[in-house]
Design goal:
The complex is a heterodimer of chains A (about 140) and B (about 110).
Chain A: E1 5-12, H1 21-33, H2 37-57, E2 60-67, E3 71-78, H3 86-89, H4 99-102, H5 111-117, E4 121-127, E5 131-139
Antiparallel strand pairs in A: 1-2, 2-3, 3-5, 4-5
Helix pairs in contact in A: 1-2, 2-5
Chain B: H1 3-10, E1 13-16, E2 28-30, H2 34-40, E3 46-49, H3 54-63, E4 67-70, H4 78-87, E5 90-93, H5 98-110
Helix pairs in contact in B: 2-3, 3-4
The chains are: A alpha+beta (about 140), B alpha/beta (about 110).
Chain lengths: ~140, ~110
């Protein structure tokens, strides 16, 4: 794979039934490219968490995925309220999700920790009142 | 043990995903919080839960579990069954509580 494959997605806000469509599409693409199953699982989980976060907190957003021979990069951008305290948001179990979201099985405060856990690099840039950009990288082991 | 063998031994209903019944089950996982299951459900496991919504299916696909078993006779809505069919996820239904369902999977595997 000499050239990067770029995939763009729009995540709709407040629509839990469609959350996961982008990560499923990326998962399918990675499978077709024959990437190792651990990389596929890590990318899919991290990206799905990001999608869910966008739906819960930011009324949707955009995701750009770059698939290269060395790594898979995901850039998630939203124009939501931003994150007040990133260190607190990264703490396992901390969540600001409303009750109706918890009733669907989310809001355990595992989103950002899972994203960090399943990726090799993760950076969060957030401005309160303007939005958040999360960049995640999963490296592809070279055989 | 395949998912089909599990259904034959337990009599549990197959609500969707008939084409996925040949998958091998390797392990059992119980959890209702999707945020936790997403990161921790082992691939190829039988996932026992009472959380029956379309997002359960999205997590099942991403975690690549062998099947989803809805305990307590929980009935999914039509959209969830359709999603399982579309995503080819074996969706089973047990009348037992979560713990007993998991134990039944284990005994089916051992005998």
């Amino acid at each position: 794979m000499s050239q990067k494959i770029i995939m763009n997605f729009t995540v709709p806000g407040d629509d839990f039934t469609r959350a996961g469509e982008a990560s499923s599409a990326v998962k399918r693409a990675l499978k077709q490219l024959g990437l190792n199953s651990d990389v596929i699982r890590r990318v899919a989980i991290a990206m799905y968490e990001g999608e869910i976060n966008m739906v819960i907190h930011a009324n949707g957003g955009e995701i750009v995925v770059e698939i290269g021979s060395d790594d898979v990069q995901m850039i998630l951008t939203d124009h939501g309220p931003g994150i007040q305290d990133i260190a607190l948001a990264m703490r396992e179990g901390y969540s600001t999700a409303p009750d109706e979201v918890r009733n669907l099985g989310f809001g355990a405060g595992m989103g950002l920790p899972n994203m960090k856990k399943y990726t090799d690099e993760m950076t969060i840039d957030s401005i309160v009142g303007q939005g958040t950009t999360v960049r995640m990288v999963v490296r592809v082991p070279q055989s | 043990m395949t998912v089909r063998e599990l259904t034959e031994k337990t009599g549990w209903a197959v609500l969707a995903g008939q084409d996925a019944l040949s998958r091998e089950i390797d392990g059992i996982y119980c959890c209702d919080m999707l945020s936790i299951a997403m990161g921790r459900a082992p691939a190829d496991s039988a996932w026992v839960t009472v959380m029956a919504n379309v997002n359960t299916l999205a997590v099942a696909v991403l975690a690549d579990v062998a099947c989803v078993i809805l305990a307590e006779n929980v009935r999914p809505d039509d959209a969830t069954v359709a999603k399982a069919q579309e995503q080819n996820v074996a969706l089973l239904q047990s009348g037992m509580p979560v713990y007993e369902t998991a134990r039944r999977v284990e005994s089916a595997r051992d005998h």
